[in-house]
Predict the structure.
Amino acid sequence: MNDVRKFILPGGEIKSYDNDDLMEFSGWMSTDDIDLTKEIVDIGSATKNWDEYKRKGRLWLNHDPNQVLGKVFNPNIESKGIRADQCKLTDCPFNREYVWPHIKNEAFSEFSIQFKSLKGEYDKNKIYHHKEIYLIECSVVSVACNPHAIIDGFKSLIPSEEWYNASLSELRGLYDNGKL
């Protein structure tokens, strides 16, 4: 049975999309927010191997190279961070029966990136800024270090910039009231 998702786009337009067969989603892989370890991955820090990452688009579960989920297509460096506009799970029993249901019910609702820090420095508030990184992979996780590295849409129906500042509780409120 397919799941029909409803999204309210800016301007109040409601879109429905049947996404069970596609297993596609989008979200923020990383943002320029302070994470739980008092570190920030600065905007533009992933340019060292950006073309390589865009080509490979590694998408794993919990940073485990033995649990390759699929691929990140069309990642973008935007004003708030690294955006994954299309993540596609490989069609296999593990993804269809375990991972995808957990993404849909928000057990896996966040992203985390694995990288090697090449350059960085502490600011006056003792926050470490990663100035240049070598991006290895993006993982789907249940708890991310970066509070805004979230899965926020299916089939890229939710525009990234407009929905970035909406909190998860605000989105859940819309859902609970039948508006999502």
